[in-house]
Amino acid sequence: MCMIEKRKRERESDRSEWTKESMERGNYLWRGGMSEVAMNEGGENKWERLKERDIEVDVQERGEKVRASRSCANYRRVYGIPTYIRTGKRNEGKRLVKIARWRCGNEERGYKFWLSEEERKCRLCARERENVDHLKYECEYVREKGERNINVDVVNEDGRGIRWMEMIERVRRERERERERERREKERRGGSE
User: Fold this and answer.
1) Disulfide: which of 22, 35, 44, 83 matches 158 by Cβ 3.0-4.6 Å?
2) Stretch 16-38: mean pLDDT, rounded?
3) Full-model pTM
4) 129 DSSP assignment
């Protein structure tokens, strides 16, 4: 009796796995825009077509998520592989990383919604949220210390804004040195009193 129940359970578990597998296959086919019937009549390269369609759907879904992102407004402009990566040379790794960081918003604090409002302020002037538009048009410190090349689209696809990006990074380093000198001077004055 015990053996009969064991075999019965095995058959039921096999069926439940089969139905789960069948459901996954059905969902995959539906995602690719095909049905079981169309798949059976599809011919010899049916799986290649289904795979290509699945990749297209995946790219579209990923693109929707990227464009709907609240962390960086520039994501809406990103589609496919940008020109600066396609045409880049192997020895330009640091340059490519720099452009990618700016395009993805990693060099801006204004869109990092998990930071406090004070931490999201510009590292140079500490007045408004730090983003590319603020740095290009509004930041007083950049206006004083750096060159303001407003005509360059910094987050463009071909990476033409690299000189501007380097200038902002240079100005940030200078500002950090100034703040460090001010802090040391303040400590020196505070310690001597």
Assistant:
1) 83
2) 67
3) 0.57
4) B
The set of residues, in sequence order, having a beta carbon less than 8 Å from that of 86 and lying 6+ positions away, is: none
Cα 129 from chain centre: 19
Q: Stretch 143-147: mean pLDDT, rounded? A: 76
Return the structure tokens found at 81.
Answer: 């592989």
* Alpha carbons 172 and 162: distance in angstroms, whole number: 15
Question: Residue with structure tokens 């990618």?
Answer: 100
The span from the CA of 36 to the CA of 40, in Å, is 6
Both tokens assigned to 128: 């408004």
Q: Are 155 and 103 in contact (CB under 8 A)?
A: yes
Domain range summary for the chain, segments of one domain joined by +: 81-110+119-183
CB 163 within 8 A of CB 99: no
Mean pLDDT of the chain, nearest integer: 77
Residues 92 and 85: their CA atoms lie apart, in Å, by 10
Distance between CA atoms of residues 169 and 100, nearest Å: 14
Q: What length is written for the chain?
A: 193
Cα separations (Å) of 46 from 50, 54, 174?
A: 6, 12, 60
